[in-house]
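Changelog note: in this version the structure field was regenerated for every chain. One regenerated record is shown below for reference.
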Amino acid sequence: MPISSVMEKCNTFVPNNLPPNPAILFDEELNELLILASSAVGRLDGLTLLLPEPEIFLYTYVRKEAVLSSQIEGTQSTLSDLLLFESDAAPGVPVEDAREVSNYVSALNFGLERMRAGLPISLRLLREIHGVLLAKGRGGDKNPGEFRSSQNWLGGNRPGNARFVPPPPELLLDCLGALEKFLHDDPVRTSPLVKAALSHVQFETIHPFLDGNGRLGRLLIPLLLCAEGELSQPLLYLSLYFKQHRNDYYRLLQKVRLTGDWEAWLKFFLRGVKEIAGQAVDTARRLLRLFAEDRAKIQRLGRAAGSAYRIHQLLQSAPVCSAARLAEKTGLTSMTCRTVIRQLEKLGIVSAMTGEKYGQLFAYREYLQILNRED
């Protein structure tokens, strides 16, 4: 659709409503990928149901996803940076980047809480999540929680030379209203993984906010799978896959827009689901082995093992911590916590992250190393 900017005319792209017409052709390869991806998601969900404390894995996975999703947008923050930022002790940490990543964690948690309270995935929920995502730091001046009322574009320095120009603001609500209906299985019921794949493309194409569209579009995937009952915990995150295959990701999004090749996009998406779900299961198993091995090491401490077990348990959900924070959370004295930390250092379980004697931060290093793996 042609529109006029202040200085020039340009063409915007207004997507057709979902589901695609003509319908997606499920050939043998696509059907097989859908079965394999669904099975991988089922295994992941089954594992989380068997975990003694799934919230421990949720805590760290959410943060890993926040880092990766924000890195796609250009932030330099790492998982360790985020944990340092959250501990209120961030020497050398890029604060603005870490705050942006922290906003992502808050936005996902907020979305989950609203869904558990009964609010379905809807335009209202997306606006509310966006408001949290851009609440602090960069993007705070880009109308958090409000759909755009002006034209935006991707690539280039103006609409006329942009790589892609989303729908004009006067058609935005029509496009979004149709997407909301599709999310609610109107006009037809769509299987959850296919719905997540198609909805992600449609959201990114509509680009309804002035900022934060990429991050919110990636958040939509695990939230939708939770809402559809495919996952009991939001532990499937595709940001790593999208980051590793960035060129293919953007190429296939554009190919859908230009040629309607939903089949190629779906195959790419389902391969990612299969791969990432498998990696998540493997990571969870590695962490369980690590916790068991470290508990065996702690057992050798004899009478001191009781306090060490309590601190080790806390480190599983807060892998960067100070002795004072450990004392606050466990009820042990600061002196006991410092003594235990020294013992855990000798066992190779924790190591110092900062050099200050008071307020010194310690990290559950191997735990963080397992989470930071990108294979």
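Spot check on this record: The mean pLDDT is 88. The chain has two domains: 44-282, 300-372.
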